[in-house]
Amino acid sequence: MQSKTFTYTDYAGIEIFVYKWIPEESTKPRAVVQILHGMAEHAARYQHVAEALTKHGFIVYADDHRGHGKSALGLEHAGELGPDGWKGTLKSIRELTDYLKAEYPDLPVFLLGHSWGSYLAQDYIQQWGSELKGVVLSGTNGVQPMLNLLLIIGTIIAKFKGYNAKGKFIDKLAIKPLNKPFEPADSQNAWLSRDPEVVKKYDEDPWCGFMVPYSYFIELAKGLKKIWKPNNEEKIPKDLPIYLFSGGEDPTNMQTRGFKALVDRYEKLGIRDLSYKIYDGARHETLNETNKEEVIQDLINWLESKL
């Protein structure tokens, strides 16, 4: 695998950092996969996924989204999405798609989104799904019972504490409880994976697991309310291949209850090429789980079946 990094300046003047992984010269490129990472993490965590994909002829791009990783303006600003919030972040992602399509105009493009990245991908396919060869949603969800409450609380507290003040109250209300099903645990992030080494590396990485500001939670809530409106989900092309997968013990989608709700809605929408898989016992980051080889191979098999 060959690798490089570069930056581009998005429409609002924010510099976005990008990783690019390329197959060895002996392997002919077959398609491009654009990866969208999750909340409070960064694109470099997907290098092992890219390494597997490049061996099968996939070129991989993954940016550090606004406020994350090397696109953020320092840890004190981690999680700040900047101008236009959710919409601006998605527009930046779309600009990267335009860039990679210009670089490889003859190759089909797949989108792979994990967690927050899967929510952004849900919005993406409502706007530009017809331009993709397929979309993959990892650790995704279609229901958030506290959505309206979180939006109201976040908006009120932000008025008093500041829009970009660290979202301590919502973190305590919505993020910290994710670990409860796995306690007692050595880490507050045990909900991510059964692999202790993965959790340890996450805990030791200052660019993982940081507390996002109220502005992030507000924008996330607005984004979820938008993408889960029936009239917006109806915009997803019915012929777009969609593959969803989740850990059976993923607390972010209520141990797959929210995951299955999204699958059910997509089925009722008439998505013609819809498939999904649940990995029993796995937690939120199935691509970083103890059975990650199986998960990644299933992903490759699905991608290749669409070529």
Q: Can you walk me through this structure?
A:
It is a single chain. The chain is α/β, with parallel strands linked by helices and 307 residues long. The chain has a single domain (2-144, 234-305), classed as Rossmann fold. Helices cover 38% and strands 17% of the residues. The protein is built from ten helices and eight strands. The protein has an eight-stranded mixed sheet with strand order 1-2-4-3-5-6-7-8, sandwiched between helices. Strand 5 (109-114), helix 3 (116-128) and strand 6 form a beta-alpha-beta unit. The chain is globular and about 55 Å long.
- Main sheet overview: 8 strands, mixed
Q: What is the rounded distance between the termini?
A: 21 Å
Estimate the helix proportion, in percent.
25-40%
What is the spatial order of strands in the main beta sheet?
A: 1-2-4-3-5-6-7-8
Contiguous low-pLDDT stretches (5 residues minimum) are none
Overall mean pLDDT score? 97
Query: What is the architecture at the second tier of CATH?
Result: 3-Layer(aba) Sandwich
Question: What count of structural domains?
Answer: 1
Helical segment tally? 10
Write down the overall geometry: globular
Question: Which topology does CATH recognise?
Answer: Rossmann fold
> What's the assembly state of these chains?
single chain
Query: Briefly, what CATH class?
Result: Alpha Beta
Structural class: alpha/beta
Note the run of SSEs as H and E.
EEEHEHEHEHHHHHEHEH
Strand content: 15-25%
Rg over CA atoms, rounded to whole Å, is: 18 Å
CATH superfamily: Alpha/Beta hydrolase fold, catalytic domain
